[in-house]
């Protein structure tokens, strides 16, 4: 059993101390811990998983190897004591990729727990735990996952991960805003080093800052993660190759996006194939959207609504970024030529829906799906950065679900920094229209919400397809899928200024197999 203590122990253990012979792990001497960013695993399927770490820049500098490749050993074992090694190898951590290490381990058994660690010189990481998926044709009784998003460093501590890492999960869905490109939070709960993030070096440093958090490291070490990104991994409210609005004027946004995407690869347990064309200068794009089976129980769809989207419309003065817009006065608002996912991804998704025989269809995407009208000074307005700003694209997604008779769609999202739970409607303007699925849009891990609960309560009355909204707590959600139904539990942190904050259960919901009505438990 992997203990909490072994997950959180200092990463700079000496190989000799854990009973490993020095020879064979390289001769690199370290003055400081080379593994300050912890370890992670991710992108699992039924026969493989990605193991990740990255060497600390200060440790590399102190060792005089900043510009050199460094060989890092990885081991994957059936047991926490590493007596039954399942696979091992050496990855050359390259300066051109920020001394990141990605070991894509193949030939593994399905639905199996494994343990892993990295070694370089006399340094060894703590032990991580990971898990492969069941085979696509396997009968599976249960899938339990947590979903999380939006973890601005300076806004609070990652106590949510302190609690998440103790849950019994098959994997974690991270839905975007792993870093923020912003400088210090006001007021700062903790110090954000580095100011505005613009260059590859800036992005690398910001990831290193986030990765230094021990609660985040524990959640990565405890479970494999499935990753998608949102805007802040690049810039607030960017759209495709169009800049958003934050910080100093951007001189070459496509170059900045490219640097940000590279840094994302370097710091996440993601597959090389998704990023290969970007990293070899053959393309400026990354293929993140995907579908993977979790046995016959579930299909997991991971979408990318940032990289291919058309820009937001009808901002005052045609400004970049997002705004609250009077849709009735915006001629292009409903233009069917506008897209959020890009037409290639839309077509792919409809085909995947059509072919899905899974009992649950879990759609992991960035933001709030359901319509959310706001009355501002007597005028109905919508936020133009979310699905509300792309209503024709949303209706096409709804059409894809209806036309393909997609079974039990469950949508997960983030971005809005509040918890929202609602019914997916065939027509959001007609409450009597069919309910075709359920949506759970999560709060943030730390990022502040600008809203007041009274505003959300008004919004629930105004938008009755939503049945729950809460802005008071940062946290995460856990979703438990069985053949009978899906149970979602929303966890809130009592004090975001405390890294070991107590948690509370905000609400619990159930959706029965074959029904879309959400019951409050
Ligand atoms: Fe966010």
Automatic annotation (TrEMBL):
Residues 146-489 form the PhoD-like phosphatase metallophosphatase domain. Coiled coil: none annotated. InterPro entries: Metallo-depent_PP-like, PhoD-like_MPP, PhoD-like_sf, PhoD_N, Phospholipid_Metab_Enz, TAT_signal. Residues 37-132 form the Phospholipase D N-terminal domain. PANTHER family: ALKALINE PHOSPHATASE FAMILY PROTEIN (AFU_ORTHOLOGUE AFUA_5G03860), PHOSPHATASE, PUTATIVE (AFU_ORTHOLOGUE AFUA_6G08710)-RELATED. This is Alkaline phosphatase D.
């Amino acid at each position: 059993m992997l203990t909490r203590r072994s997950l959180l122990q200092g990463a700079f253990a000496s190989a000799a101390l854990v009973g490993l012979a020095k020879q064979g792990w390289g001769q690199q001497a370290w003055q400081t811990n080379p593994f300050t960013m912890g370890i992670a695993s991710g992108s699992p399927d039924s026969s493989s998983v990605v193991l990740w770490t990255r060497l600390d820049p200060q440790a590399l500098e102190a060792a005089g190897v900043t510009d050199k490749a460094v060989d890092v050993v990885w081991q994957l074992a059936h047991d926490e004591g590493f007596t039954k090694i399942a696979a091992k190898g050496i990855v050359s951590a390259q300066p051109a990729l920020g001394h990141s290490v990605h070991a894509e381990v193949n030939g593994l058994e399905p639905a199996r727990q494994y343990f892993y660690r990295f070694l370089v010189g006399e340094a060894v990481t703590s032990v991580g735990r990971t898990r492969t998926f069941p085979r696509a044709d396997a009968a599976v009784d249960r899938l339990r996952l947590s979903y999380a998003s939006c973890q601005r460093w300076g806004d609070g501590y990652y106590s949510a991960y302190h609690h998440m890492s103790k849950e019994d999960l098959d994997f974690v869905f991270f839905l975007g805003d792993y870093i923020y490109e912003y400088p210090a939070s006001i007021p700062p709960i903790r110090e954000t080093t580095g100011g505005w993030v613009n260059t590859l070096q800036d992005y690398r440093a910001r990831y290193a800052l986030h990765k230094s958090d021990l609660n985040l490291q524990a959640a990565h070490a405890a479970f494999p993660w499935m990753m998608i990104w949102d805007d802040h991994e690049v810039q607030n409210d960017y759209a495709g190759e169009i800049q958003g609005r934050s910080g100093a004027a951007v001189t070459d946004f496509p170059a900045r996006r490219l640097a940000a995407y590279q840094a994302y690869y370097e710091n996440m347990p993601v597959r090389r194939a998704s990023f290969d064309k970007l990293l070899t200068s053959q393309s400026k794009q990354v293929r993140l959207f995907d579908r993977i089976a979790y046995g016959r129980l579930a299909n997991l769809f991971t979408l990318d609504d940032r990289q291919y989207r058309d820009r937001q419309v009808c901002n005052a003065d045609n400004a970049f970024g997002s705004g609250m817009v009077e849709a009735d006065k915006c001629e292009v608002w409903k233009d069917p030529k506008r897209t959020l996912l890009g037409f290639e991804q839309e077509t792919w998704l409809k085909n995947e829906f059509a072919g899905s025989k899974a009992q649950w269809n879990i759609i992991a995407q960035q933001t709030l799906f359901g319509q959310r009208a706001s009355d501002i000074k007597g005028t109905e307005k919508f936020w133009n950065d979310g699905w509300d700003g792309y209503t024709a694209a949303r209706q096409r997604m709804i059409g894809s679900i209806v036309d393909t008779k997609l079974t039990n769609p469950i949508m997960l999202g983030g971005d809005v920094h509040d918890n929202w739970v609602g019914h997916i409607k065939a027509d959001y303007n007609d409450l009597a229209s069919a309910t075709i699925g359920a949506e759970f849009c999560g709060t943030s891990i730390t990022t502040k919400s600008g809203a007041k609960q009274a505003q959300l309560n008004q919004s629930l009355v105004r938008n009755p397809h939503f049945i729950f909204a809460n802005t008071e707590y940062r946290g995460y959600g856990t979703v438990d899928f069985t053949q009978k139904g899906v149970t979602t539990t929303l966890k809130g942190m009592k004090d975001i200024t405390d890294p070991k904050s107590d948690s509370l259960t905000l609400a619990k919901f159930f959706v029965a197999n074959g029904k879309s009505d959400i019951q409050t438990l």
